[in-house]
Write a structure and sequence with these properties.
Helix content is about 70%, strand content about 0%. By secondary structure, the chain is an all-alpha fold. Helix 1 packs antiparallel against helix 2 and helix 6 packs antiparallel against helix 7.
Amino acid sequence: PAGKTFSPAVHITIAKKKGTNAVDVAESITMRMAELASVSLPEGVKYRITRNHGETANDKVNELLEALLVAIIIVIGLIAYSLGWREGLIVAAAVPITFAITLMINYWFGYTINRVTLFALILSLGLVVDDPIVGVENIYRHLQMGKETPLRAVRSAVNEVLPPIVLATLAVIISFLPMFLITGMMGPYMGPMALNVPIAMMASMFVALTITDRKSVV
């Protein structure tokens, strides 16, 4: 095109190894190039970073973390509005515990925290709070009736909702397991979802029955 000049250039693409952090790799390369530019490049030769996947990945991860935080705040607010702040905080405690268990199992299976993993956690957020909400809400109802001692009221409330909690959890797990069978290019993308959602649901049920229900009576 008229008015534009072109110069010969060499393009170099650097890819990270599996399991490494794209953001750390990109920052290291940027710093190293800045150091080499003044001592290794001949006069008149310049370098330019035209594409930085580490920066893009960092922005996307921050957006997903923000969405996850907003979703947690909304869940806590709704429970606190309908049942009370104490009950809302009890349900809120289930979220980090559930995700901690899920991420620990991710580590054992060799998965890293990436955009797909975070998306799976956001997707499962609305599901993992179901079990604690159902348990806490029913315990709250029994305690409000005042017909039994607190300990007996908790036992009665949990026994009422235990079968539907288990069945609902198993239904969600079964619906996500077929994602493990996806092959081709989409297989690696669906793998974290097929693992994280069922694991998060199982962890949620475990937390609901062992931690949040006990906190409701303390």
